Each structure stands twice: as structure tokens, then as C-alpha cells.
Amino acid sequence: MKEKKEKIDLILQRNAAEQLAKVDWKELNTVISSRLDDAGRGKTSTIRFPTIFKIAAGVAAAAAVVFILVMLKSHTPTGVQFETSGGAVVKFIESKGSASIEIEHASAKSVVMVDVEGSQRKVARCDIEMIDSNGDLKKESQGAAWIIISRPEPLYADNGVSSDITDMIYLF
Amino acid sequence: MNGNLKANTGDVERLVKASQTGNRAAFDELVRLYQRRAMQVAVRMLGNADKAAESVQTGFVKAYLSIDKLKEPKRFEGWLLRIIANAAVSRARVAKHRTEKIKIADHFEDKKILSPMERQSAEELKEAVERAMLKLSKKEAKAIALFGLEDLSHREVAEIMGCSVEAARWYVFRARQKLKGLLKDYL
After folding, report:
1. pTM over 0.90, yes/no
2. How far apart are the first and last CA of chain A?
3. Burial category of B181 from C-beta neighbours within 10 Å (exposed 0-12, middle 13-18, buried 19 and up)
4. Within an 8 Å CB–CB cutoff, is residue B180 touching chain A?
5. What is the per-residue pLDDT across A57-107, written as a single tens digit (0 to 9) for each?
6. What domains can be seen in chain B, in order of their start residue?
7. From the candidates A23, A37, A44, A45, which should be mutated to test the interface with B, based on the most B CB atoms within 10 A?
8. ipTM score of complex
9. Quick one: which of B139, B156, B2 has its CA closest to B74?
């Protein structure tokens, strides 16, 4: 048993010796030195990182605020078209997406379908009120028209996100 | 020759203290003194000089970045070898799937003149040892590698491994048992 153990040790020893004989120590030393240089630089940049990060974060935050404001402005409808033959279609001018409103009774319970950018279709039953900024409701009017749709608790929604619909329609 | 086997303890302490104050030249000297020692451990753990060199590089970088945490400079060698052994363990985990980026042992022909048969035999043994070492547990691999260093006492090995001498011996025994089966063609 002991002899076998020694043989194992000798095998490992032989392999280690053969492997170590191949090593270029100067090259190894150079590579280690180079990696230490990199690590040293990393150490320095870590120390500087908080200040740089703060500045970068501030710039990014400011850019994000500007971007959001621009996006909000570009998505704000400047006009609304009405088709009131039993229903109404709200089309956003200078904005993507549309909302179609099927009116049962004006200023009463109505079914509201919203299709924003073609990707979401949501249905909810809401109270609607149409207000023309000029005081009278005009068919096919454009520009100065507003819709206020309000309903705190939707009667139904097809995908369980009706409260989002209510919020979204307020924006219209 | 680069990498003395045993460095003067007083010099090492001085170099460690200087390194802790940010003296890079002092740490470079420690690298020069201990790179052979570190390679001995890593080669014994991994069975392959190129992979060992990678783990030694990683180990020295880790040591450099954390040398200020070493409270007893006189224990530098044990502390360093522990880092090297851990780096070798980490290297072993990715050994199978990683391509070699840096070849430290490419100068086979330049360093040692071997016949084609001897070279083939050496290559086969390297691959066999490499495969066998991957079959050991981390502690078994560390124990057999550190016990193989002739001038390292059992107590020092146990200290580096962070276990009792008896436990370290047990890991060596287990490693030998496994290796006997795995390398039986070479016995």
C-alpha cells in the first residue's frame, strides 16, 4: 500500500517537473507584471468612479427628463375628429394610435374601445362627456375639441387592466 | 533564476510591509521570489503548466489587490499559497471549456530536448493527470498538491487549507486512493 502511494506521488512529481521545465519564467513574470499594471489602473479608476458616476448619472437624468418632455409634447393630440352616428371615433392628430367610442347615449354609459399604437385593445364601460371648446359640438370638427371620459370603477374590462384605460383616456 | 524556493523571512516581511504602503516595486520583488513556488502548487493541482500560469497570474493580482488586509506579514507565503490554490480551484472549474489565451509553456523544445516518444509520453501523462485532478474534490486537490511540496510541513499545509493536520492527511489519503484508480495505467 505504501509503495503504491509513493508511486502515485512519483507520477505527480514527474508530471509537475516536466510541466515546470517548460515554463518560461521571464515571460511569466512579464505577464504577471502587466496584469498588475492593469489591476493598478482598475484600482485607480475605482477610486475615481463615484465622482464620475455622479456626473454621468446627473447628465443621464437631465437627458431623460428632456426626452420625456419632448415625447409627451409630440404625443399630445392637437385635434380630435368626431363621427357621431351612434358612435364616435377619436383620431389623434400628430400622434399615434386611436380610440373608438361607441355611444349608447350621449353623456351616459358608453362602451369605450381604445387601440393605442395598434398593440393594445382594451374595452371598458364608462361615462363620457363631450365638450367643444367653441361651445357647440360640430361633426367632423378638428382641432379644438375635448373628450372627458371618467369612470372610477369600470363595470368590465376584457383584460383586467381597465383602470389603466381610464387613466389613459383622461389623457385624450 | 527567477523564483527562489525559500525566501529570506526578514526580506519578505520588509517587502510585504512596503507593498502594503503601495510600493509596487516591492510587490514585483515578491512576485519574483514566489512565482516558482506558486507555480509548483498550481501545476500540481491542475497538471498543466499553461492553466497553472493563468491561475498564478490571477492569484498574484488578487494578492496585490488585497495585500493591505494581510495582518501578519511573516505569514505571507501561506496566505499567498492559499490564494493561489483557490485560484487554481476556480481555474479547474472552467478548464474543460476554455480556450487558452496565453501560452507560457510554449517553449517545450527550447527548454528540454526530448525524443518524440518521450514527448508523447509526457503529453499523455499531462493529460491523464489533468483529467484525474479534475475528479478530486477541491480539498483533496489542494491537499495532494501542497503535501507534494517537500519543504512544507504538514502543519503549514493544514494552515493553508484552513483545517486540522489530521483532516489534511485524510484528504491526502482520499486523493491518493482516487488517483491510484484514475492513473493505474501509469503505476
Report:
1. no
2. 88
3. exposed
4. yes
5. 777 777 777 666 665 555 444 333 444 444 454 544 444 445 555 544 444
6. 9-98+116-182 (1.10.1740.10)
7. A23
8. 0.83
9. B156
